[in-house]
Design a protein that fits this description.
The protein has 217 residues and is mainly alpha-helical. It folds into two domains: 49 residues, Arc Repressor Mutant, subunit A; 140 residues, Tetracycline Repressor, domain 2 (Orthogonal Bundle), CATH 1.10.357.10. It contains ten helices and no strands. The termini are far apart.
Length: 217
Amino acid sequence: MTETVVDTKTRILDAAEKLFADKGFYATSLRDITAEADVNLAAVNYHFQTKDSLIDAVIGRRIAPVNRLRLEMLAAAGPHPSVEQIVAAFVAPLLERGISPMLPMMGRALASPDLFLFRIFKKHLAAVADQFGKAFETALPSLSSAERMWRLLFMAGSMAHVLSWSHVVGEMTEGVCDPTDREDVTARLVRFVAAGFRATEPPRSAQPADAVRLGAA
């Protein structure tokens, strides 16, 4: 009985993930999912109650293990981790694991910033981002909070770019870059991002009010 329940729930999650990647989160109906999973609507309602809950479960199934490993690596680096250790703890769990099933679905989410903000960041990433922000504050106390936040966003953007373009990098670079060597890709990205974090913060530009006064003059 238990095995049947687990198999049914997994089939629903697998079917939903495939269809969300192919058609989008909101263009996919529950009827589409039941047909793909070969289950009835009652089974979906039993396991997930609503489509919104099913979307959260599909996303959480892929992101939760990554976040756990991120926090484990960050904790293992000790109370005073280096910039490289912090960056590696953030990017390595995603770059170095088997993530191919996650890429099409994440691509859909990244293409819709509002969806990413409310479905992924606020529910699954905000608390983790806060922990990494505090770690960078310890490692780089001279940076302003705004500068650290921008650099966190640039780190996440670089990682997302590597993930979403990995299937064409080899051809684009005529074989010079090998995206299949995950450890090498991770090491290169860590060096690149760490250098960006260590860069001297530029002087602050004129405040908006100052800019308005200068324009009026």
